[in-house]
Specification:
The chain has 183 residues and is of the alpha/beta class. It has one domain: HUPs (Rossmann fold, 3-Layer(aba) Sandwich). The chain is 31% helix and 27% strand. A five-stranded parallel β-sheet has the order 6-5-4-7-8, sandwiched between helices. Strands 1-2-3 form a three-stranded antiparallel β-sheet, with no helix packed on it. α1 packs parallel to α4.
Amino acid sequence: MRLLAAPNAAAVTLHCELNNTLLTKPTALMRTIVIPTDFTNEGIQVAETIIRDIDADQVRVIFTHLFHVADDIQDLLFSTYREKEYELVSGQFWRDCRSLKDAFSKKLTSIKIEFFYGNKLASLKNFLENCETDFIAYSAQYGIPKLSKSSLDALPVLKKSGYMLVDTDKIGVNALTDVEGYR
């Protein structure tokens, strides 16, 4: 008897070749969403929209910002740029993350902030793979503003990454869930 795992969005289906029967075992569906941001309220809004809309039991959110690496050897040796970037994340953004976690406590398992440093597409793909990225969420209307002169123009680079990009501006609110708006 050989069991084959067949991917399914809500369950793992095992096919038993011996007697051609299907065994279904429900599993929790975990999704990891990477959100490129400048660590303002707009990034929180993107996260909230995607968490409300996603069909998953558990969600991990990783807020990120992309920085290029300096070419100058002195900048590389004596720079403390990896420490300075965390200063760009405001206390208000951290509080908003806590509020988001509280609002979606059953669905949202973790919120992380990770910075990407690099100039090559391959290193970005490795970064996204290391984050176990399922897809990347952003707002085309807001864009992805730069934090500093060393910030990358993130959207064109992310489009080349091969990962699915979800524009949260295109996600509508179900009219039946907004009862006050219906009246």
